Amino acid sequence: MAEWFEQIKAEFDLNFIQADRWKSMLTGLENTLLITLFAAIIGIIIGIIVAAVRTTYDNNSESMKYNGSISYYILKFFNAICKIYLTIIRGTPVVVQLLIIYFIIFATSTNDIMVATFAFGINSGAYVAEIFRGGIMSIDVGQFEAGRAMGFNYIQTMIYVIIPQAFKNVLPTLLNEFIALLKETSVAGYVGVLDLTRAGNAIRGVTFSAFMPLIAVALIYLAIVMLLTWLVGIVERRLRKNER
Amino acid sequence: MNDNVLISVKDLKKHYKPRKNKKYTDGVTKIRALDGINLDIHKGEVVVVIGPSGSGKSTLLRSLNLLEYPTSGQIIFEGLDITAPHAKINKHRRKMGMVFQHFNLFPNMTILKNLTIAPMKLLKKSKKEAEEKAMALLERVGLADRAQAYPSQLSGGQKQRIAIVRSLCMEPDVMLFDEPTSALDPEMVGEVLDVMKELANEGMTMVVVTHEMGFAKEVGDRVVFMADGVIVEEGTPQEIFTNPQSDRLKDFLAKVIV
Ligand SMILES: Nc1ncnc2c1ncn2[C@@H]1O[C@H](COP(=O)(O)OP(=O)(O)O)[C@@H](O)[C@H]1O
Ligand SMILES: [Mg+2]
């Protein structure tokens, strides 16, 4: 028994304490969190823009055509671009997107973390856009008509009436999307970023001891995901309580 | 005479593409929801629109404030063609209140907020001014004590009275009602009709789609009977209910009046 304990201790010592290896894990964790946070922000920005274009097109093409407005054709163009973006992003693996953005689009950049963040942000934007669009479409059309009938224009109706209701509906889904994003960033090592996964794997490569570093990586992800899931639960309960 | 006309509908047509999943429209290339409507609505007049389901009543009412864009024809509101391209439709809509069958109150706002948001944002009223007006109107429909409640805490009849008040807060020149009592339990119909009656007595111009024949008789200045997208017959309640001319109207009345 004591022998077994000694062995564990030695393993722990080798993988984390010696050469301050825990520090590289910590750096990896920091990078993972940083990439996730900023990718989520980029995703939200892209998501808002794409969802706005798509829903505006869906809701107003009839009235814009009726008014013979030139903006109809502009909107139609951007709507087509958004659709292409959504199709490509949701139709290809995130690793492939990451590699393309790193080795082709930003081939000259030296800031690995920034490029990876962009790649994950652009990827997440497509999913966030569809979450937002779904949220807006889930609001009863009568709400929209009531707003317009009172004299609000399209954008005012969206801002005052539709979006506050839609946002409440999609907030849990949105947060879950970011939890998934956190896990997806574990492929950032493909382009040389030292994220949590790569840091753990690098330790394994040096110490030739797989169990400790990989299990540690898994446990850290698990702990963060459980924490975030718990927070989403609180948000969900809060929202349900307000919804009378 | 003519300057007494508030809304003038001229040869209004609205054609829909058939909804794909409807079996009975097989082979039909377009649905003529409105097929040439001519109608003048005068200031202070209460026009009641009746007719069988699917006859185009809602489409007509929703065309008046351009919730539906007409296929052809014109709507002249207060002397301006609101169907013209680039007409300032959002401005016109502020003067046309609309009450829906399903109330469409904003569930995430208190009653008071429901009533004040449009006057504050669109008429640039101060919060105080908007709230005073809202409270005064709530008082009149007997719901002042529910100002801080949320729509889901109210009964159907209360919701619809609030919806009427919400429109009135914008001080409209005309009120459009699309079957305002059809979604209500029978015991709540009266309280909503009473508010509408009071409004009519005060001289509000009203266009009311309804199946409440009692209301049509008592409050209507003119009754319009629609079928298949056209106005088949119109006249005073007296003429329509006691001396119907067309077979369609006779049929319809036989079915609705028991
Ligand atoms: N958005 C739509 N698309 C296709 N057909 C429609 C649409 N709205 C209404 N219609 C059709 O137009 C006709 C008139 O409908 P409506 O005005 O709602 O009648 P009413 O209110 O008298 O019951 C019906 O045949 C209906 O099915
Ligand atoms: Mg109808």
Task: Name the descriptors.
heterodimer; A: 244 residues; mainly alpha; MetI-like fold; elongated; B: 258 residues; alpha/beta; 4-stranded antiparallel sheet; 9 helices; 10 strands; 24% strand; binds adenosine-5'-diphosphate; binds magnesium ion
Give an account of the 3D structure.
The complex is a heterodimer of chains A (244) and B (258). Chain A has 244 residues and is an all-alpha fold. Chain A has a single domain, classed as MetI-like (MetI-like fold, Orthogonal Bundle), CATH 1.10.3720. Chain A has 9 helices and no strands. In chain A, α2 runs antiparallel to α3 (71-91) and α2 (21-66) packs antiparallel against α8. The longest helix of chain A has 46 residues, at 21-66. Chain A is elongated, with a radius of gyration of 23 Å. Chain B is α/β, with parallel strands linked by helices and 258 residues long. Helix content of chain B is 36%, strand content 24%. Chain B is built from 9 helices and 10 strands. Chain B has helices at 57-64, 89-94, 111-122, 127-140, 156-168, 186-201, 213-219, 237-242, 247-256, and strands spanning 5-16, 31-42, 46-50, 72-77, 80-81, 96-99, 174-178, 205-209, 222-227, 230-235. A 6-stranded mixed β-sheet of chain B has the order 6-7-8-3-9-10, with helices on both faces. Chain B has a 4-stranded antiparallel β-sheet with strand order 2-1-4-5, with helices on one face. In chain B, α3 crosses α4 (127-140) and α5 (156-168) runs parallel beside α6 (186-201). At the A-B interface, α2, α6 and α7 of A face α2, β6 and α3 of B. Residues 57-58, 179 of chain B line the site of magnesium ion.
